[in-house]
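Comment thread on ticket #2218

A.B. wrote:
> Attaching the input chain for the structure job we discussed in standup.
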Amino acid sequence: MGEKRRFMRFNVLMDAICRTGNSMRKLKINNFSREGLGVLSRECMNPGDQVEIEMSVPGDNMPVVFLGEVAWAMSPEADNQNYRGGVRFKDIKNSDRSRILGYIYQKWIMPAGVAQ
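C.D. wrote:
> Ran it. Output below, let me know if you need it in another format.
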């Protein structure tokens, strides 16, 4: 069975805060694409949930805040405590998307440990 992804994914590991209604939780973002991101959470996420995510781009002092919708979620596997999920962008400024992708592209093109 092949992948159904339409856009290339870039692996990252970044901290974020997720707000759903009146609740707030910490997340780890583990990948980005043009349409959304993959997340790891200690708490269950439900497909269809509307979320607000706040994250910091390393080297940038302005937080990125955007709205999204949980597209899918999976329970933790036996050897892992994290729920996995995907969040589809619903409302993100083009400038914020560019800041995120600029950071990711820089990491992709210039991997850690390579002299600049």
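A.B. wrote:
> Thanks. Noting for the ticket: The chain has one domain: 10-109.
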